[in-house]
Amino acid sequence: MARQEFNQTITEFAEFVGMKDKEIIKLIGAMQSLTTTQKDTIVGAINEMNQRINSLSSNAAGINDSATNETATLSAKKILELLNQAKADVKNELLGGQVDASIDTIKELGDMLKNIQTGEDGLNKLVQKITQTNQSLALLVGKFTVLDGINLKEAYNRGYNR
After folding, report:
1. Phi, psi dihedrals of residue 66, rounded to the nearest 5°
2. pLDDT tens by residue, 19-62
3. What is the distance between the alpha carbons of residues 158 and 142, in angstroms, rounded to a whole number?
């Protein structure tokens, strides 16, 4: 594709996106119809809502990260911390001690144990990784070749009009 033709295609696409953005902004609605006191920006309105939610959460007796009873619950962050700790404890118990951070799923544990049984060594793993990398690069080159012939404006119109 010639440079001038490429520049023209990109310019037309940018103009087309600008027109579509204008249509989308019309669909979103007027900022003044927000029920928040902050109406200048959507970010400001969202921040105001976040402050309201935080205020409600801090006043509620329901969330308590040190809770040990049934009248309160832990925060999502605390629940995830406890789940991750439980997962690490199970892996440590299965392998008899601290495990490498790269082994983060049961499947990887199984694969590792299988490789130990079959005697697979580091050289075989290195050759496998190099082969996978070469395959990925070949796939990427193919995708770039396909991408060069795509008319983005036409594709956007097809998707938009479905």
Report:
1. -110, 15
2. 888 888 788 777 778 888 888 888 888 899 888 887 766 655 56
3. 24
Q: Which residues have C-beta within 8 Å of that of residue 42, sequence separation ≥ 6? A: 31
The two three-digit tokens of residue 34, written as one number: 């927000």
∠ CA 79-83-87, rounded to 5°: 170
Partnered with residue 73 across adjacent β-strands are: 63
- pLDDT tens digits, one per residue of 60-103: 556 777 777 666 677 788 888 888 888 878 777 766 666 665 65
Question: pTM (2 decimals)?
Answer: 0.28
Contact partners, residue 32, CB within 8 Å, separation at least 6: 39
How far is it, in rounded angstroms, from Cα 91 to Cα 102? 12
Query: What is the three-state SS of 71-131?
Result: CCECCHHHHHHHHHHHHHHHHHHHHCCCCCCCCCCHHHHHHHHHHHHHCCCHHHHHHHHHH
Q: What is the torsional sign of CA 133, 136, 138, 144?
A: negative
